[in-house]
Amino acid sequence: MIPGFSTSRRRFSDLSEQEILALAISNEEDDARIYRQYAERLREEYPASAKVFEEMATEEDSHRQWLIDEHKRRFGETIPLIRREHVAGYFARQPVWLVENLGLERMRAEAREMERQAEQFYRKAADRTSDADTRKLLGDLAAAEAGHGDTAGQLEKQYLGGEAREAEDETAKRQFVLTWVQPGLAGLMDGSVSTLAPIFATAFATQNTHTTFLVGLAASIGAGISMGFTEAASDDGELSGRGSPWKRGIASGVMTTLGGLGHALPYLIPQFWTATTLAIIVVFVELWAIVWIQNRFMDTPFLRATFQVVLGGALVFAAGALIGGG
Q1: Kindly report the CA angle at 254 between 249 and 258, in degrees rounded to 5?
Q2: pLDDT band at 166 (very low <50, low <70, confident <90, very high)
Q3: Same domain, 130 and 187
Q4: Which domain holds residue 151?
Q5: Signed CA dihedral, 290, 296, 299, 301: sign only
Q6: DSSP assignments along 224-275, one per residue
Q7: Percent of the chain with pLDDT over 70
C-alpha cells in the first residue's frame, strides 16, 4: 500500500443500521452547510436566490434533527463518525468553490442534483433497515427529497417573483458578459487580427510552411500570455464589478491563443498554396465569429460590427501580405 493512501473504505452494504443513520446525519449537515455557502455567495448580487438557499438549508437542519432524535431513540447519544468519503462508491459533492465560480444557474443545477442523490440514498437506506419507525422516517425523507423540486419551485415563486427573477437573470447575464465574454472577445479579436500581419508576412516572404507555422505558434502563445496577464493585472474587479481577475485573464489568454492558432495551424500542411488558402478561409470564419459574438452578447448592430471587424482584419491582412511580398 502506498503511504498516506487507504483502501479501507466501507461498502454501503456492510454498514450497520446505526452507521446508516450516522451517515444520513452527516449528509444533511454537509448539505445544509453547502446551501448556506451558496446563500452567502449570492447574498449581495442575488438576494432573492440567497433567501431560497437559506430556506433549503433550514429544511436540511430539520431533517438532521429528526435523524438525530431517531438515533438517540435506538442507539443513544454517541453518533459514530462516518462521512461520504468513508463509503466506497458513494456519491461525492462538487467542491463548493468550483460551483460558486460557475455562477447562479450552476448552483441551482447542483442543488437539484444534490436532492436527487439524497432521495436515492434514503430509498436504499430504508431497504436496509429492519426497524419500522426508522424505515418510515427514511421513507418520509426520501419522499421529502423527491419533493424538493416542488419545494424549491414554491420558494422561488415566494422570493423570486417576476420582477425579482428578471432582475437576477439580468444581473447574472451582465456578470457573465463582463467576466467571460468581454475579455474573451477582446482576446479573440487580438489573437485573430494582430497575428495576421506576422503570419502572412512570413508566409509570403518565405513560402515555407514550417517556418510560417513556427512564427504563428510563437506569436499566438506569446500574445495569449501577454493578454492574459494584462487582463488579470489591469483590474481586480472590486470597483468595476467585472469579476475575478484570474477568470478574465484565463478567458482573454485562451481566446487570444486560439484566435492566432486558427490560421497558423493550416501551415502544418506542407503545400504552401493549399495551406495559405485554408488559412485565409479560417481567417474569414474567425472574423465572422467575432461579429456574431459582438451582435449576440454585446448588442452591437450587425452591420456596424461587420464593418469594423472585417475592414480591420482586411487591412491587417493586406499589410502582412504586402510586407511579405515586397
Answers
A1: 150
A2: low
A3: no
A4: 12-160
A5: positive
A6: HHHHHHHHHHH--STTT----HHHHHHHHHHHHHHHHHHTTGGGGSSSHHHH
A7: 83
